[in-house]
């Protein structure tokens, strides 16, 4: 299985805490956050990732190199900002298979039941499926409205809707041929945002676009307050073990 990991953002909100590092490389208990993320997905069977890099890409490349444990790594480097959608399109050129692939936000950690998620994607014959995390409030995050079968109906801005909320957890399962078709049919130049440009168009055009709600430990290091909380949260999560010794 393969994944594209989005690690190219500028991380401006976290810059005051880690001024010289890309956000996914922020240290958590002495280790880069990105190590924890990759190790979870290695355990799920991912054997190849494409890092969609940009800001300070050399920090990530120098740390991980071409492999991390059993994981083979390629790097797609943005010379100019492409947006999340543009970063995915560029990275897709380095994927080795035509099977569905994962897209992962490099600054969030959410250990899910991957087998159930993939089964849901297959049963719904979905072109793209989002992992949705249930939350008691959504002041920081926008929320997602879905039909009974999980089809995505609407993305709401932060603070709108009725609790409990479902937020986009930053983990996607995508059909490669669908995204290749989307890329070919676009008549607008980059940058293109997955969240602001592509998602709304898929809803309006009634694409096979679903959300899979679940719960569990959700860690986002996007702002200093949550980054500090992350240090304690990782100490309590079971089954987090470094594989650096096997590199």
UniProtKB/TrEMBL annotation:
<dbReference type="InterPro" id="IPR050486">
    <property type="entry name" value="Mannose-1P_guanyltransferase"/>
</dbReference>
<dbReference type="InterPro" id="IPR005835">
    <property type="entry name" value="NTP_transferase_dom"/>
</dbReference>
<dbReference type="Pfam" id="PF00483">
    <property type="entry name" value="NTP_transferase"/>
</dbReference>
<protein>
    <submittedName>
        <fullName>D-glycero-D-manno-heptose 1-phosphate guanosyltransferase</fullName>
    </submittedName>
</protein>
<keyword id="KW-0808">Transferase</keyword>
<feature type="domain" description="Nucleotidyl transferase">
    <location>
        <begin position="3"/>
        <end position="231"/>
    </location>
</feature>
<dbReference type="GO" id="GO:0016740">
    <property type="term" value="F:transferase activity"/>
</dbReference>
<dbReference type="InterPro" id="IPR029044">
    <property type="entry name" value="Nucleotide-diphossugar_trans"/>
</dbReference>
